Structures are given as structure tokens and as C-alpha cells.
Amino acid sequence: MMYTLNQIIVLLLCLVFFNISYSQNEKDQEKKPIVIIDPGHGGKDPGAITTQGINEKDIVLAIASKMVVLNDTLFDNPLRLFLTRYTDTLIALRDRTLLAKTLKADIFISIHCNQAINTTAAGTDVFIYLKSEAQASASTYLGLIVQKGLIDVLGIKNRGLKYGNFQVLRDNDSNASILLELGFLTQSDEAIYLSNEESQSAIALVILQAIFKMLGL
């Protein structure tokens, strides 16, 4: 097929535009904050289990997965959001923090559910680890706004912000990192709430909005 000079010029301009657009898209992606969501447990480690046999590992993965969907659809993808696991797989703790280090994450949130011998124990806990003054300050702020959202929007009891010597926090270099215990699967009302898909979507939305506030988005 023979092309006229005008057709060749148009083709060349299209190629130039495509390359510029592709490069610009890459640059835009690089500017987005990097957030790692770590759904706890997985695989042969179920975590806490409700009396109905629902596993913590499945609840936290469902919430994390909903955060990815909400970020991409409802909010038009403002974050580069990664999960430490996307399936029912057990990931070593060192590999969870390695992902955050490799990607140079701005924020790291490990999501869990709690359990206790006392079946009346209820509420959410947020843990941080003191690595540096700057990280402790950023992590504290993130933890507090996540908790406030869970309390104000969802009515979840606040058990406070605490210091925890967890490996995923201790070995983490993210600007802000927290471990979130959403509630007790050994408490009947919280177990029902956390197992509900609509509740999981609401929790995912609250955590995302806290991240946006933290990052000024």
C-alpha cells in the first residue's frame, strides 16, 4: 500500500502523540503516592475464626480487595495501591516488609481482626512502632484518623492507639505504617459485622478516605 505525503505526516504525528501520552502517563503514575495494604495471615494460617467458621484471613483480604476496586473506580485511581497478597496465600512477614521497601512506599497498613478468651472484648486497636520521630508522628496521625473514621462513620468502639513490636512495623521503612485490628471475631456482634460484605466495603472506604486525608488528596 502506498501512502501520500499527508498520510505519512499524520501517521508520524500520531506516533509522536502516542509516545508523549505514554511518557506522560508513566510520569503521572510515578507521582502518585504508593500505598501498601497488607491483609494479615493467609494460606494455612487462618488467623482468628468466628464461631460460624469464618476466617480472619478471608475477611481482611476481602476488605483490602475492595480498597483496590474503590481506588480504581470510585476515586479514579489517585493512589498506586498494592496488596501484599491478592489470593489465599501465606506470605512471609519479611516479604511483606520487603515489598514496602522495594517500592519505597509512602504508607503501609497491615489489616487484622482480633480475638480474645473474653468473648465480651470488643473494639478496634491501632498499633505503631517507634522507629524515628518523623515516622512515629506520621504513623500516629494516620492511626488516629483511621480510628476516627471507624468510630464516627461506622460506630466501632475505640480501644486506642498503642505501641506494638510487630515485625511488619519494626522492619518497615514507609513514611507511615500502622497495624490495624478491626474488631474481635470472638465477640458475636463484631464477628457478624466484620463478616458482612457491605460492612467490609464501608470499612474499605473509611480506610481509603483516611489515607487521602493523610496525603492531602
UniProtKB/TrEMBL annotation:
Keywords of the record: Hydrolase
Catalytic reaction list: Hydrolyzes the link between N-acetylmuramoyl residues and L-amino acid residues in certain cell-wall glycopeptides
One GO term describing the cellular component: outer membrane-bounded periplasmic space
Alphabetical list of Pfam families matching this protein: Amidase_3 (PF01520)
SMART domains: Ami_3 (SM00646)
Protein name per the record: N-acetylmuramoyl-L-alanine amidase
Residue ranges of domain MurNAc-LAA in the record: 97-212
GO biological process per UniProt: peptidoglycan catabolic process
Gene3D superfamilies: Zn-dependent exopeptidases
Entries under PANTHER family matching the protein: N-ACETYLMURAMOYL-L-ALANINE AMIDASE (PTHR30404), N-ACETYLMURAMOYL-L-ALANINE AMIDASE AMIC (PTHR30404:SF0)
Organism classification: Bacteria, Pseudomonadati, Bacteroidota, Flavobacteriia, Flavobacteriales
Organism, as annotated: Winogradskyella thalassocola
UniProt EC number: 3.5.1.28
A molecular-function term among this protein's GO annotations: N-acetylmuramoyl-L-alanine amidase activity
